[in-house]
């Protein structure tokens, strides 16, 4: 962030944690599903074998297109215009310095290709890290018609330069979710069982943003520079989409409904146009993975995906 003009932040933990988000309702259809799939690179490298056409096109007489599990990561963005954090009293920060830190998702049933959804959002965590504040939002999404829970997203947002609000020692830290849900991932020392290389396009972030995350960090060169990057960066959830697509292709034989839960920590920004190499280590029904930026030989994302038990025999 050297030399950047950071606006002062002001965080009142009591006010932030007492905030109640209004319930939000939205609908999506097959156009949204297909647009998302293209946004995370589906039908790019494999345009020739056509294995991902099912995410954008009715194939084999199917009356609906298939939905990638990470499509559910868009749902929290439907609660309000952006991340929803702008509306939280007691949370004043410079939005240019916001980065996506982690994402955890649970998928309770195959995602329909069109649906009306109701979101319930709570603040699941708030942590003073000194140089940064971390805030965690948990969004549970229900099918409006039946009331069934469809998926849950926990989004960890890293607010650079907004820490140091604690008046206590140790610094303020609050979390209200089971500790086993999100954890540190250690990457095995052995060679990965699978490696999948994919290319993001220079226009990838401009395409991905049409799915609903219009943060100018991904499209406006001036904002990106003010945030400390040489040019606009890729959405973290776009990189996560590439990683989970790689796992579905290499390990799930293309069965996108095999995914039960997903965790990823964003370690490094990705520039649109860079090559993403996902390395995978199956461990029972869990697949540990990391996605590297080939051009810079550095890991940008690491995490795990838990698959449904029927996948265990093929791992
Ligand atoms: C509702 C929807 C909400 C979602 C909104 C998303 C909107 C999007 O438009 C925004 C984006 O997509 S941004 C693009 C994707 N994200 C990135 O590129 C970030 C990449 N990561 C980084 O730059 C650094 O890891 C960085 C900067 C994150 C951290 O690096 P450092 O400052 O060097 O941190 P470090 O000193 O190592 O650690 C400090 C404390 O923070 C914890 N931590 C570190 N990385 C974290 C991460 N990625 N996620 C969560 N926590 C993280 C560390 O554990 C440490 O805490 P402690 O001292 O207690 O161990």
From TrEMBL:
Superkingdom per UniProt: Eukaryota
Gene3D superfamilies: Hotdog Thioesterase
GO molecular function terms noted in the UniProt entry: (3S)-3-hydroxyacyl-CoA dehydrogenase (NAD+) activity; 17-beta-hydroxysteroid dehydrogenase (NAD+) activity; 3-hydroxyacyl-CoA dehydratase activity
Domain Peroxisomal multifunctional enzyme type 2-like N-terminal per the UniProt entry, residue ranges: 26-161
Domain MaoC-like: 189-297
Pfam families cross-referenced by the UniProt entry: MaoC_dehydratas, MFE-2_hydrat-2_N
Cellular compartments per GO CC: peroxisome
Biological processes annotated in GO: fatty acid beta-oxidation, unsaturated, even number
Family annotation (InterPro entries): HotDog_dom_sf (IPR029069), MaoC-like_dom (IPR002539), MFE-2_N (IPR054357)
Protein name: Uncharacterized protein
Source organism of this protein record: Asparagus officinalis
Lineage, broadest ranks: Eukaryota, Viridiplantae, Streptophyta, Embryophyta, Tracheophyta
């Amino acid at each position: 962030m050297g030399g950047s003009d950071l606006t002062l932040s002001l965080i009142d933990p009591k006010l932030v944690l007492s905030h109640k988000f209004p319930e939000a309702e939205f609908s999506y259809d097959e156009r949204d599903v297909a647009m998302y799939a293209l946004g995370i690179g589906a039908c790019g490298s494999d345009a020739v074998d056509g294995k991902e056409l099912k995410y954008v096109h009715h194939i084999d007489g199917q009356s609906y297109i298939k939905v990638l599990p990470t499509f559910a990561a868009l749902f929290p963005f439907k609660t309000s215009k952006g991340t929803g954090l702008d509306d939280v009293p007691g949370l004043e920060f410079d939005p240019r310095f916001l980065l996506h830190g982690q994402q955890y998702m649970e998928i309770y049933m195959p995602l329909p290709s069109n649906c009306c959804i109701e979101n319930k959002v709570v603040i699941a965590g708030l942590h003073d890290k000194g140089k940064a504040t971390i805030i965690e939002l948990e969004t549970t999404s229900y099918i409006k018609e039946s009331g069934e829970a469809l998926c849950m997203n926990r989004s960890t947002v890293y607010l650079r330069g907004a820490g140091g609000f604690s008046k206590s020692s140790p610094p303020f830290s609050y979390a209200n979710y089971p500790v086993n849900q999100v954890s540190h991932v250690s990457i095995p020392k052995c060679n990965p069982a699978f490696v999948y290389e994919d290319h993001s396009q220079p226009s990838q972030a401009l395409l991905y943003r049409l799915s609903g995350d219009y943060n100018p960090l991904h499209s406006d060169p001036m904002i990106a520079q003010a945030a400390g990057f040489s040019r606009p960066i890729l959405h973290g959830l776009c990189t996560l989409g590439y990683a989970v697509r790689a796992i579905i292709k290499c390990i799930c034989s293309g069965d996108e409904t095999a995914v039960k839960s997903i965790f990823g920590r964003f370690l490094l920004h990705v520039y649109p146009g860079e090559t993403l190499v996902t390395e995978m280590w199956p461990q029972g029904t869990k697949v540990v993975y990391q996605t590297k930026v080939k051009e810079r030989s550095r890991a940008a994302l690491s995490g795990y995906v838990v698959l449904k038990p029927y996948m265990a025999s093929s791992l």
